[in-house]
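>> received
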Amino acid sequence: MKLFRYILIFLLYFNTNYSWAYSDQNIGFADIDLVIQTTNIGNSTLKKIETLNNSNVDKLKEFEKELKNNENQINQKKKFNIF
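>> returned
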């Protein structure tokens, strides 16, 4: 058991000391939302996505209306069959 403890302490000691990374380069981050909103290509892409989204929403609304009509027809048939 002592040997296991010494091995564990040895491994933990070396893993914590050598896990740090030292770098001479600066790290920079880009705000992608800002880049997309301010560039011409980003604006045109956003407009295309918005028009596609609107057309999909319209198609789904039409499909929902059809489903509601079908549901109403089925419910009416069930009412006639019960009486």
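>> The chain has a mean pLDDT of 85.
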